[in-house]
Amino acid sequence: MLRNLGGSRAMKLAALLLAIPLLLVGCASGQLPGLATVTPEEMIEPFSAQELEVEPSRTLAFTATLPLSPSPVFTWTPLPSLTPIPTETPLPTLDLPTENSREIAFLTWTGLPTYPGDSEPGRLFEVRYDPDLWVQMDGNLGEVVLALREDPTCIIVGWSGRGLPTGSKVEQEFRDFNGIIYDVSIVRVEGQVRFYTYTGGDRRILTGFQVTPGEQPEACLREAEKVFASIRSFTGFPTSTPFPTP
Q1: Residues with Cβ < 8 Å from 130, sequence gap 6 or more?
Q2: Could you tell me the CA-to-CA distances from 232 to 13, 124, 202, 206 in Å, in that order?
Q3: What is the pLDDT along the chain (246 residues), one digit of tens a residue?
């Protein structure tokens, strides 16, 4: 019994050894299901970059340059039709005080905005002017005016949209003075310029000015617009601006 059992085991072992090559052949040929096929590394063809159509990487380089912020400089652009204005009823020429001998960089003209309904309550306007060029004084009707020393017929007064002369025609345009926008009206009578109006502010107040350009209209408007470009508003109580002592 023991010999027969041992011989049977020997026969099974021999049969198993004979079956291993057959299994390997079946794996290689793919005839046996459920078995994985391993391909040697040297059999795999490497992919080239051209076959994969791989686009090379790109690097964008830039240099940021921040522009310098220049100091705002007011540049005057002349308005059209700067011709001398014929005056139907000439007013007396203002008697200007003598120039102040003190070295003053600028003086201010402050007052209530002429359009209070379009302005924030409790705010005043302020403009700056060069006392070497302008004189602040009372006008012929008692109003505050700026008069140009070089040409006393060049006058700036407040403007609130009062009535225009009979037969007048108005041309309008907008002008930007360093970010301050003014609505400019050119008032003509029989084709001749009678005066100019400037209405604007700093978005908190709205006020108007009237300019009578006089005998030297180009110089008058150039210097007047420098004054208008300086406008600002502030909270305060309305008081009269003291005139400089002559």
Answers
A1: 106
A2: 111, 8, 6, 10
A3: 444 444 555 565 555 555 555 444 444 444 444 444 444 544 445 544 444 444 444 443 434 344 444 445 556 666 665 555 555 555 556 565 555 545 568 999 999 999 999 999 999 999 999 999 999 998 878 889 999 999 999 999 999 987 788 889 999 999 999 889 999 999 999 989 999 999 999 999 999 999 999 899 999 999 999 999 999 999 986 555 555 554
pTM over 0.70, yes/no: no
3-class DSSP assignment, residue 227: helix
Q: Which residue has the tokens 């070295």?
A: 103
Structure tokens given for 84 = 């001398």
Contacts 24+ apart (CB under 8 A), 161-164: 161/114, 161/115, 161/199, 161/208
The widest CA-to-CA distance across the chain, in whole angstroms, is 156
What is the DSSP code string of 11-31? HHHHHHHHHHHHHHHHHHHT-
Block residue for tokens 């994985």: 36
The 3-state DSSP class for residue 88 equals coil
Query: What is the number of other CB atoms lying within 10 angstroms of the CB of residue 136?
Result: 19
Residue tagged 């007052």 (tokens):
111
Centre a 10 Å sphere on the Cβ of residue 124 and count the other Cβ atoms it contains.
19
d(CA 221, CA 26): 107
